[in-house]
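RECORD TYPE: inverse folding
INPUT: structure tokens
STRUCTURE:
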């Protein structure tokens, strides 16, 4: 059944999708917009799901991006809890799970990603939390009561944040991950080891260099068997091993995919009426001269808005340099650029493993910067990366700290 034709359809009612509405409205006040997503909630910010909501620093009501009246005021039809399951790029239509078909002039795929799942026996048991959404928080939070035990599989961003949140809420927390240090893709080994000592001092049990091979139930508890022969029993089981970009719709549309949906500097696919933004977009990161896909809040916020402006024919290349941040007990950081431990890292500590700056270098040029317990330095870090000039590592001492 054909429903309605819109000037703009945005598939994915998350931060990137909602930001695209803002971007469109800076250029086009009248064009009809459909914003549709499969989550039951209106667009919201994800970072509080593993941070402030657990610490009582905000409430669920405060994480929504806009009040309900905003979508009416902006002449946006918002449909939540309904998935788009088909795209006909030639006909310029999308079809939802109810069988309704909508026409578009410009289409944005802001479909994000889905949590990677454990491909092991028991990896699909009921109650395992593949933590990502507000619904996941609303399910886990009431269960996470003082004295219960929780096993967290994964030592990356989500794993470290949830472990800190649960421990602060006085649960007995165990982390299981295959690397020797926490957040090993980003933290240099010495920082990773130091942070592990912080976690142990806070009462978190860490099992490194090991992985889950099977999960069963024993009464109300989960029993996790590991490759190295450990048996871990827990009341709660949370998995944070990354996300996979949601590419199915892009493939149905016939646009190129790889490590995400391939887009140009204007966030267009090869079909110039189809755009992509947020966690799913593989885009040219101009300051670094390489293509990246970035799964962070600031990128979704700014890239969604840029895609919206360009859908409304602004034709501005996306040159913004997104940053990301985290808080792990008393250790907080902000980072920008390419912060991969595959690069050479140079640390400028004021207080070792607490306060300082880590530079990520390639060919004597700064490619990324992490500021640890230092604030308001992101713009200076961006300027240093954009300069793309050879730097003597000794000249970085005190540069930002």
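DESIGNED SEQUENCE:
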């Amino acid at each position: 059944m054909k429903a309605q034709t819109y000037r703009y359809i945005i598939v994915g009612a998350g931060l990137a999708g909602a930001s695209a509405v803002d971007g469109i409205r800076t250029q086009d006040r009248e064009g009809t917009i459909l914003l549709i997503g499969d989550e039951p909630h209106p667009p919201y910010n994800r970072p509080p799901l593993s941070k402030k909501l657990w610490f009582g620093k905000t409430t669920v009501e405060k994480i929504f991006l806009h009040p309900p009246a905003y979508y009416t005021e902006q002449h946006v039809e918002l449909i939540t809890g309904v998935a788009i399951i088909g795209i006909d790029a030639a006909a310029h239509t999308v079809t939802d799970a109810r069988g309704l078909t909508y026409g578009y002039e410009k289409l944005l795929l802001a479909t994000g990603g889905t949590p990677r799942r454990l491909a092991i026996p028991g990896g699909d048991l009921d109650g395992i939390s593949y933590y990502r959404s507000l619904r996941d928080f609303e399910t886990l939070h009431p269960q996470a009561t003082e004295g219960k035990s929780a096993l967290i599989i994964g030592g990356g961003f989500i794993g470290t944040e949830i472990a800190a949140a649960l421990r602060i809420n006085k649960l007995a927390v165990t982390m299981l991950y295959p690397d020797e240090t926490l957040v090993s893709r980003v933290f240099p080994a010495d920082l990773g080891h130091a942070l592990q000592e912080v976690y142990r001092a806070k009462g978190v049990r860490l099992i490194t260099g090991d992985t889950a091979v099977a999960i069963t139930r024993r009464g109300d508890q989960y029993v996790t068997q590991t490759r190295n022969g450990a048996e871990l029993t827990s009341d709660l089981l949370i998995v944070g091993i990354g996300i996979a970009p949601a590419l199915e719709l892009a493939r149905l549309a016939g646009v190129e995919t790889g490590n995400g949906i391939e887009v140009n500097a204007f966030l267009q696919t090869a079909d110039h009426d189809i755009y992509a933004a947020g966690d799913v977009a593989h885009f040219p990161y101009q300051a670094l001269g390489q293509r990246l896909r970035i799964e962070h809040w600031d990128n979704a916020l700014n890239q969604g808005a840029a895609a919206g402006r360009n859908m409304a024919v602004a034709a501005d290349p996306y040159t913004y340099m997104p940053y990301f941040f985290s808080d792990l007990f008393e250790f907080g950081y902000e980072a920008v650029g390419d912060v991969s431990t595959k690069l050479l890292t140079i640390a400028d500590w004021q207080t070792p493993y607490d306060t300082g700056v880590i530079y990520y270098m390639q060919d004597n040029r700064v490619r990324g910067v992490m500021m640890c317990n230092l604030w308001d330095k992101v713009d200076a870090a961006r300027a240093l990366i954009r300069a793309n000039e050879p730097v003597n590592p000794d000249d970085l001492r005190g540069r930002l700290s």
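NOTES: The chain has a mean pLDDT of 96.
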